[in-house]
Structure formats: structure tokens, C-alpha cells
Amino acid sequence: MTFVKITEQPSPYDHLEQCSVRELLEQINNEDKKVPDAVEKAIPQIEKLVTEIVKRMKKGGRIFYMGAGTSGRLGVLDASEIPPTFGMPNTLVIGLIAGGDRALRNPVESAEDNSEKGWEELLAHRISSLDTVVGIAASGTTPYVIGALRHCRENGILTASISCNPDSPIAQEADIAIEAIVGPEFVTGSTRMKSGTAQKLILNMITTSTMIQLGRVKGNRMVNMQLTNKKLIDRGTRMIMDETGLDYNASQSLLLLHGSVKKAIDAYQSEQES
Fold first, then answer.
1. What is the pLDDT along the chain (274 residues), one digit of tens a residue?
2. Which residues carry out catalysis (predicted)?
3. CA 197, CA 38: separation in Å to the nearest integer?
4. Would you call 1 exposed, middle or buried from its count of C-beta atoms within 10 A (0-12, 13-18, 19+)?
5. Residues 40, 47, 81, 173: which is the catalytic one?
6. HSE on the CB side for 16, CA within 13 Å?
7. How many helices (H) and strands (E) does the chain have?
8. Which residues contact residue 239 at a Cβ distance below 8 angstroms, ignoring those fewer than 6 apart?
């Protein structure tokens, strides 16, 4: 079967420079509406991945996201949000981008074409069979990612891929291939648009459901979030008020004493029971 990059096919819209601002916005929105349906079709594969990740993380495993360009940036973004949101160490979900941190703001020429660099970076992190490596590539053809996944499979490390083309090379190297086929982009080939949106939704699903399964959420609340600003301290205080019936000042004092909503509530409940 010939591999066809749907992500590189011509946009269904043309003469964009002749459109009004309203027309452009409505057309972009029409295309964006296709993304959730494409992600929904991939839920069985996402479910399989999360189930495997949770089993491994309970034994001390980690998640590695790997990508180049927009895909790499999205992986780093999702990884960077885990510590403040769920109170987890920044060593458990790690985003690697071709070209290193400099590539987060500026393109690093040809970095994604090095098929050995990704594996070298994983080795530097002491990758093990408890870890999971998720390759992200809208096109599904990024050598930096493909090479890393190939080495991982050769070494018994669970691999997954997130791509927006069916039956792509990256999927061939993944134990679990997640494909969100969103169709041609509004601006031909601009995968920062629908493809990027689909990838972001999938990454949200992976880490959020994993953290919930690992006990980092109570009810529907981020009880392990880091108290890094006044807004979060206020949010945490109100969580404690709702759970304990204490007033605002007492709840905030309890929160600041223990450092997290969960620890504060556990300590209060333990005291009440004793």
C-alpha cells in the first residue's frame, strides 16, 4: 500500500487572500469542528495506551514524549504541566524535542532528520523497560522519532505513536498506534492547525486519565496541585472548605501548613477520627 500524506493534501479552501476576516474565521472553525470526531475514533487505542502506562508507572515507570517542531513543543508543554497540576515530580513525564530546548522557540535546522539522536537522548535518561515512549509526528515520518521508537522496541520498551496520517512509518514502529485523521489543513500542510489541535487533545487525555488512575485527583479536583500563586492557594482553600466545613481562614491555614489540599484534608480527617 502506498503511503499518502493526507496532512500534505491541498486545502479544501482556496483564494484565501481574497476572503474577508469573517470568512476566514468561519472556515477555520468549520475545519476545527472535525477534530473531536477524529480523536473520538482513536479512543480504543488511547485507552489501551493509558492502561499500559498506569501499570508501568505504578512500578516506577515514566512517560517520554518525543517529537519535532510543533509536535515536539506540544509534548514538552503537556509534560511541563504535570507537576503544577498534579503535584508529581518533573522526572515522571518528560518531553524531548528534536534540537533540544532551543527548538522550543526557534527552528533548529535538520534536527528532526537525525534518526539516532532521539535514542541517544533516551539513553541519557537511563530509559528502562518500565518506561513508555510516545512518538508524536503529524506526518508520521519524522526520523528523530522513528529511530527512537525502533530502538525502544528492540530493547523491550513500550512504544506508542500519535500521528494524523493512516498507516504511517511511525505507526509501524509503535506497539500502540494512535491515528487522528483530521484531513487536509486549512492552510495546506500547516499541521500546527487541526493536526496540532488533535495531538493536544490526545495528550490531555493520556496524562489526565493516567494521573486520575494514579490517585492524583479526588472527586473532580486537583487536590495535589502545587501552590505556586494566590489563585491556586485560594482554589485550594475553597476545596478544603467544601470538604471539611471549616471557614476560609482556618482552611487556608490548614492548607499552608500541609502544602497540598490532599495532605491538609487527610490531616484534618485523621485528627477528627482520633
1. 678 899 999 999 999 999 999 999 999 999 999 999 999 999 999 999 999 999 999 999 999 999 999 999 999 999 999 999 999 999 999 999 999 999 999 888 789 999 999 999 999 999 999 999 999 999 999 999 999 999 999 999 999 999 999 999 999 999 999 999 999 999 999 999 999 999 999 999 999 999 999 999 999 999 999 999 999 999 999 999 999 999 999 999 999 999 999 999 999 998 888 7
2. 81, 112
3. 11
4. exposed
5. 81
6. 13
7. 12, 5
8. 221, 223, 261, 265
Check: pTM over 0.70? Answer yes or no: yes
26 is catalytic: no
Catalytic one among 17, 26, 52, 112?
112
34-41 vs 21-32: helix crossing angle, rounded to 10: 10
**Residue at 226: amino acid letter:** Q
**Identity at 97, one-letter amino acid code:** I
The three three-digit cell numbers of residue 21, written as one number:
476576516
Cα 162 to Cα 67: distance, rounded to the nearest angstrom? 10
Strand partners, 161: 135, 177
Give yes or no: 81 in active site: yes
CA distance 161 to 138: 10
Looking at the DSSP bridge assignments, the partners of residue 95 are 65
Reference 69, options 37, 113, 119, 128; nearest CA is: 113
DSSP state of 10: P
Q: What is the dihedral of CA 40, 41, 43, 44, to 10 degrees?
A: 160
Residue 271 grid coordinates? 485528627
Q: Which amino acid is at 261?
A: V
**Quick one: cell of 95?**
518531553
Place of cell 487572500: 17
